[in-house]
Amino acid sequence: KQWYQRRVRGVKEAAVSTVGLREPQRKRHHSSDSQVVSMSEERKQLLQLLNNNEYRDRKALRAKINRLSNDITKRLKKIRIELANSLADSIATTDEGRKMFEAVRQLSGKQKTDSVSVFNTNNQLVDNDRDKAEIIRNYFE
To answer: What pTM value is reported for the model?
Structure first.
């Protein structure tokens, strides 16, 4: 038994050192809003009661859980709308093009794009953005 546990521990340590640990991903509806967090915790407790059969009136408990789920969804939608409105205001009021396009990207929900792979004349990958721009500019001249 100890031999097996040592082997498993060794495999785990080797995997961690070779591949590394994966960061836990946030859930799709993750929010740090205090109302959402408290409603989520309450809903989690009610679900535990429902699953443990510690509550006799399952219909009333299910109704509370559904109402909390709907309230959470409404609150998340309200937060997204408020964020979109603030971004739209920043787009409308800014004079700087860069800030405007940053706000538009945030509003569209588009993630940062991958960088362009550019190779120099020696067929080596260039990792500096300034050098990439220079190589591309020289190519089109």
So the answer is: 0.52
